Amino acid sequence: MSDIRIATAEDQILLDKEAKYCSYGDTVHYIEPPRIFSRCEGSYVWDTEDQAYLDLQMWYSAVNFGYANPRLNNALKQQIDTLPQIASQYLHKGKIELSEMIAVDAKNKFGLDGRVHFNVGGSQSIEDSLKVVRNASNGKSLMFAFEGGYHGRTLGASSITSSFRYRRRYGHFGERANFIPFPYHFRGPKGMTKEEYGSQCVQQFARLFETEYNGVWDPKTNQCEYAAFYVEPIQGTGGYVIPPMNFYRELKHVLDQHGILMVSDEIQMGFYRTGKLWSIEHFDVQPDVIVFGKALTNGLNPLGGIWAREELINPKIFPPGSTHSTFASNPLGTAVGLEMFKMTNEVDYGAMVMAKGKYFLEGLQDLQTRFPIIGDVDGLGLALRCEICGPDGFTPDKATLDYMVEEGMKGDMVVDGQKLGLILDVGGYYKNVITLAPSLEISYPEIDLGLKLLEQLLVRATTR
């Protein structure tokens, strides 16, 4: 185990300025002193001392296709030299063709006509989806969402995000959510299969509609007080919790019976993170609205948006001016998004991601057999989880995971003579889950390297 790392004199000058001039409201310092980074490429970032770190979280799954991806970078550079700026009230080719790609893909997969609506990021697109939903439901502001769900930190998005600390100081702004238990099998009732637990969760939700006295439904008019159910098909900040495959199909049946829309939040799990364009595709259901962001532009431009069924978003129902952002559908972002779709249509990213994910998961399962503090591992594609627990393999152990994260950021581990750091992300209900979102372009040797670095951190954690 190494000593506490000291910032260089140059970095310390910058950190002193940050302490004086920067708001802490838009960032969190997970380690001290915070690292300052200078360059990135592929699966790696380098700090100001040129120390390399293997990144297994890729900017919270915003950089699915690797740092400084040459093809996507070149698309941005070419757009800068042609049409870098245009007001969103005007049209340009990129917006139209990117919308077409998303809408035609949805038609082919779900059999539904729909339209695409852009904004500058994930939270803003959640806000737009809330407008679509409220408009379609005659102004209903109550939503269902999941315990452990995360949909952003704007006022509306935080109202349907289960963590109270994100809205504690601000109160509610229109939307309110009824938070429903998610089928988190590792911490669910014992003696049930994953599928049985998923069905039980749906049955508990369906109980809300048994009588008017359960609080959400008027049987005389067959109307529900709630407009939509916001779901992350795979929970993101909640710890990459993967539900049973029967869960959403059974849940959607209940929603359709009572006229409740399903909004699929794909901001973190979209764009092949799970081996499908949208993670909801794994579950054989038709969403009413899809919200996307992050990896659409591989982190090169803040662009997000929604796809919604034609009945919800056509111009007669959702007319011009229903929402607006100066930078919505900006040509730099749509150019990169369009190139991303062209790139993923040329290579079978689905098969590639599933194969790499299987290989990575097998490596995590091997570590689990050798380190009792790993309580659970799971994965779908390259969305993987590793839950760190106490010696009993079940009690959440946030402190040990925090220690592992700090050790990984010291940049002092050695594998095959190479000195490296390891960037991990922390999630989960108890903040004891390593949420692994490596680049989809990660090589098999890099997966092996990541597993070796994880093993070194586990050894440090269990022998300290």
Give an account of the 3D structure.
The protein is α/β, with parallel strands linked by helices and 464 residues long. The chain has helices spanning 9-21, 58-61, 70-80, 93-110, 122-136, 155-159, 194-206, 247-257, 310-313, 331-346, 349-370, 398-408, 444-463, and strands at 37-41, 44-47, 52-55, 114-119, 142-146, 176-180, 217-218, 223-224, 226-231, 261-265, 289-292, 304-309, 374-380, 383-388, 413-415, 418-423, 426-427, 433-436. It has two domains: 9-68 and 349-463, Aspartate Aminotransferase, domain 1 (Alpha-Beta Complex), CATH 3.90.1150.10; 75-346, Type I PLP-dependent aspartate aminotransferase-like (Major domain) (Aspartate Aminotransferase, domain 2, 3-Layer(aba) Sandwich). The chain has 13 helices and 18 strands. The strands form four sheets. A seven-stranded mixed β-sheet has the order 4-12-11-10-9-5-6, sandwiched between helices. Helix 7 (194-206) runs parallel beside helix 8 (247-257) and helix 11 runs parallel beside helix 13 (444-463). The protein is globular.
